[in-house]
Amino acid sequence: MKERMEELIQIINEADYNYHTLDNPTITDQEYDKYLRELIEIEEAHPDWVREDSPTQHAGGKIIEGFEKVTHKIPMMSISDVFSESEVVAFDERIKKEGYNPEYVCELKIDGLSVSLLYEKGKLVRAATRGDGTIGEDITHNAKTIKVIPLKLKEEVDIEVRGEIFMNKKTLEKLNEEREKNGQPLLQNCRNAAAGSIRQLDSKVAAQRKLDNFIYHLPNPLDYGIHTHSEALEYMKKLGFKTNPNNRLVKDINGVLEYIDEKAKQRESLPYDIDGIVIKVNNIDEQQRLGTTAKYPKWATAYKFPAKEVLTKLTDIIFTVGRTGQITPNAVLEPVIVAGSTISRATLHNEDYVKEKDLKIGDIVSIRKAGDVIPEVVEVKKERRTGQEKDFVMITNCPMCNTPLVKKEGQVDYYCPNKKCPARNIESLIHFVSRDAMNIDGLGDRIMEDFYNFHFIATIPDIYSLKEHEKDLTRLEGYGDKSVTNLLNAIEESKKNSLEKLIFGLGIPHVGAKTAKLLAQKYKTLQNLMEQTEEELTKVPDIGAIIAKSVVDYFNDPHHKAIVEELIELGINTTYLGQEIVEDEDFAGKSFVLTGSLTIFTREEAKEKIESLGGKTVGSVSKNTSVVIVGEKPGSKYEKALKLGIPIWTEEEFKDKLQ
Questions:
Q1: Tens digits of per-residue pLDDT, 222-235?
Q2: What is the pLDDT of residues 294-334, one digit of tens each?
Q3: Among this protein's residues, is 109 annotated catalytic?
Q4: How many angstroms separate the CA atoms of 337 and 312, rounded?
Q5: Catalytic pick from 109, 304, 522, 616?
Q6: C-alpha span between 621 and 624 (Å, rounded)
Q7: By the 8 A CB rule, do 238 and 150 touch?
Q8: Are 353 and 379 in contact (CB under 8 A)?
Q9: Taking Cα atoms as reference points, which of 311, 350, 304, 357 lies closest to residue 333?
Q10: Confidence label for 371 from pLDDT (cuts 50, 70 and 90)
């Protein structure tokens, strides 16, 4: 189950990066939601497994190179999703348990790009994307081309408002008509067209796209004497902003359900794409008291419309090789348009998955998706079979290097054992430079694929010899002198990373980011780690027999040894640079949960201090939790701790323990 958790974290984090940063989603919203729920269930059952890089701990998103970074004074939080009317009712019941009988504002969930607009004395001074919620991208030059965004307000007021930039359906149709005439590729859907337009460096391109905008949020209404969300919407409309005429104030949950039913029926006739309904507590004072989780406001939720299903033909099943050598079957589908985008591929995960669904080549299958992404195969339509279909046969040799495949005992996946397999190698290179590993800015997936195909990078050490190809790089399309210099500087800077980044980047099977940090803290240098036996490694808390064997096997492999030795010669740091662990009886071996708003420490500072004294932090409360540390406005975790009789520390008590 822990392996499944790590697999889910990798899938979701990669999906977040592709969706939020590259505007190139690779899985459907429905798949994403399913994976996230599965991950939450595993983490709730095993809170001591929760990793710092888990998507349940933070919002996803990165900054696109070429745009200036913008720090939001008030974070732009995500909104939690629900997928059925019963979950909408449960949301209402949770709020009522807090002692409120709320009115709600219902809004259409526009499928576009979130934006923050900042005005000083009524003049637009900055527009920014949501980014990761704390840091976004400055898109002022493009926002100014959107006619409905006022450059000057009707009052000379200092204000920040938030909303959604989107493209209307008819606008997309007209653009695609022109693009077809000019022999250009068609824009697949409104959401991606809007996001791609707003991230153009040339504002003329954005202006030609005729984007639209609705404003839906005032982050600090109390500063303007406003005490309801509906009043905030009216105030923003009065200032000159465009708000959605479909917004509706309802008295209770019955009004919410009526609104959902009505808008679901009207969805296709709307001039723009929506993928759900946003439900917000109207009273601002109630919002403040309800508070937030680390990621979501507790006073709002988004009902997502069910994913659509379409039928198409499964024309073939092909196989790909991942970073660890894992073999994945993939469905080749007869191209079909779903929700505005053309679908032709879908992952089938593993042999058991294909057999469980009883898929045959030539079958008519149903697929579903909620955006421009690779879909999920839902089921085969057996009644459509003609007898000409071909049975699925799992391959026995690697599709890239023809090495016989192996299947590990107790696992469902097949692996290519050839560590020099070309497909496996490129995946390992991409992993090495990723954010949680060596975090080399500028070496994204596509760039790594280009450099691999151009024979600039074939092994991990080649990354640090890329400067030898500096002249060749500047001759490539899209690579100027400045971008090449920035890339080479980022590569050089990564040599200074702490040891845990290198351990994780090496791609040792079963060693995630959190395990890499544990090993780095314990053994201090890479050389010390390489000298450990399986028996010694299993003495480290949270290091089991499987991980221990994997680490020893990795460093005993001559190929891996050669890579490590070459990295050392290239000047890569192999020493742990983080805080040392000094075990303390109040912290050593104990698990801690942080809840509420901390005022003395940031959450990251609190986590570091706990870990430096031999403790660990987990995401949810269970009977195995040692202590719950509460800040201001603690939520359900505090209540659960009371019920379970778990020791509770205030932030002041936590500070005293540290001293």
A1: 999 999 999 999 99
A2: 778 999 999 988 766 778 889 999 887 776 788 889 888 88
A3: yes
A4: 10
A5: 109
A6: 8
A7: no
A8: no
A9: 311
A10: very low
